[in-house]
Structure formats: C-alpha cells, structure tokens
Amino acid sequence: MNHQDLINACQQDWQDYTEHPFVQQLANGELNKHAYLHYLKQDFLFLKHYARAFALAIFKSRTLAEMREPLPSLTALLDTEMLHHVEYCGKWGLTESDMEAEPEDFGTVSYTRYVLDTGMAGDRVDLFAALAPCAIGYAVIGQQLLNQDSTRLDGNPYRSWIELYSGDEFQAGTQETIERLDSMLAEIPLNSQRGQRLCEIFRTATRMEVAFWQQGMNAAR
C-alpha cells in the first residue's frame, strides 16, 4: 500500500478537509479576520505538539538510521518554521507571548493528543500515518488554491499563506514526507488488518483537520 491508498480510503473526509469553506474563503480573500487570527494562534500551539511528535518518532526508533530520519523535520520545525510563524503572526499583531498564553481550543487538544497517543500506543508507522494528513493535505490545498479560478491573489490579505503552501520549498518537503511514508507502507497489504488500521488512523487525523478548520470558522461567529 501507499499514501494514496490512505487518501482513497477516506475520500469524503479528505474532500471535506482540502475543500473546507475556511480554505475557500481564504482563497478568495473573504475569510473573516477573527477566524484567521484564531487559526494562527491555534496553529502555533499545534506546531509545538507537532514538534513533540517528531521527537516521539526518534524515541520510537530502533536503529540509528531510523533515529536520524525525523531529525531534519524536528530541527526545521524548532529552528525555522516556528520562527517564521512567529514573525508572520507579528504582522497580524500577535506576539509569541500572546500565542503561548492562548488556551488550546477543543479541536487543537483533540487533534494533537490523538497524534501523540497514536504514536505512544503504536509504532513509527502508526505515528507517521497520523501525521501525514497535515503535511500532505496542506501541499494539496496549496496547489489547488493556486490553480483554481476562484482564487484571488491581488489584494488578498491571505496571499502569503497560499504562496507558502503552494511554493516549491513546501512542495518539495512534502514529497520527501510522501516518499518516507510510502517506504514504510510498501510491505503492508492494504486489505490486511494492519493496513485497515492505518487507514483508520489516517481517516481520524483527516477528520481532526476538518475540525481544526471549523473551530476557526466558529470563532468568528
């Protein structure tokens, strides 16, 4: 099996995630500012747990090669992506201390703890299956938004978000994630109990992504 099998096993949930109204309104510039600010603050908290998940992947590794594998992603998260996120949020009037003090919304708690719990209870493959919807989905969304006619870049306050996730650097990083996941899945039959369990992990994490968008929309009401 491979990553596309995981997506195919939850096609409706995947569509709900990658074509969510939050994303579509962001693309045409009509997303409520308060929804976006809530998303930015919660995404900061999410990224901290995302880094913890990559640290857990090292803990769960058996060989030195396996231990080295997640290290670039962990280093990039802590040294580069979190810094860029803080700098970007500063342009929206949010400081790092503001975001550190922000309470975690229910969707953030549910999603991040699900990923960490999956990794703790299972193995590296379980963990990376739970992490996959985030990295793969954002790359898919970035490309879709860049190519669809309804996306407006000129005068769109969210243009930089679209350009980030459709950009070559993020797309290349996602391809590396896909190749790593596919190598883990290659020897697992899709219709086996193990394969179906991984599909369910991926589907649940995808549903969590839908809830993550929705909590931003709900914050604007």
Automatic annotation (TrEMBL):
SUPFAM superfamilies: Heme oxygenase-like. Its EC number is 3.5.99.2. Pathway: Cofactor biosynthesis; thiamine diphosphate biosynthesis. It is an enzyme of class 3 (hydrolase). It comes from the Bacteria. Belongs to the TenA family. This is Aminopyrimidine aminohydrolase. It comes from Photobacterium atrarenae. The gene is tenA.
